[in-house]
Amino acid sequence: MGMMQTASDDILLEIAGVSKRFGGLQALSDVNVRIRRGQIYGLIGPNGAGKTTFFNVITGLYQPDSGSFHLDGKPYSPSAPHEVAKAGIARTFQNIRLFGDMTALENVMVGRHVRTHQGLFGAVFHHKAAREEEAAIRQRAMELLEFVGIASFAARTARNLSYGDQRRLEIARALATDPLLLALDEPAAGMNATEKLALRELLVRIKEDGKTILLIEHDVKLMMGLCDRITVLDYGKPIAEGIPAEVQSNPAVIEAYLGSGH
Question: Name one GO cellular component term (predicted).
Answer without folding.
Answer: plasma membrane
